[in-house]
Amino acid sequence: MKVFHGREQGALSDHRTATFTGTVWADPVMPATDNVTINDVFFSPGGRTYWHTHEQGQVLQVTAGKGWICQEGHAPQEIRTGDVVWIGPHERHWHGAAEGSFMIHTATSIGKTMWAEAVADKDYPSTKD
Questions:
Q1: What's the pTM value of the predicted model, to 2 decimals?
Q2: Half-sphere exposure of 102 (CA within 13 A, CB side)
Q3: Does domain 20-118 have CATH number 2.60.120.10?
């Protein structure tokens, strides 16, 4: 068993830039442990991940706002506060905030994350909420 205490006072959020479009910040909930990482991720309106996969899958729990999730070959689906998404192993996907809303989700990633290219603006829904 391992106990992970909450963030230390004054700890800084991680500004995500290399594999995200827009302004995105993350706070660790649990450091990488036994091939699992947990982060709270804060997306500004229109902020989003690049295309990526997870070796053993990912769970997203939307805790605030509204956004999008898209599996390759499918239309983007709206996600909002209270929604939980299971992304299976090796499913190529992206997720992020709607153009007119912030979004916060807790991401539990299992295994290695393999990052790919940015999501093209033409492929990102542009309907304001």
A1: 0.91
A2: 9
A3: yes
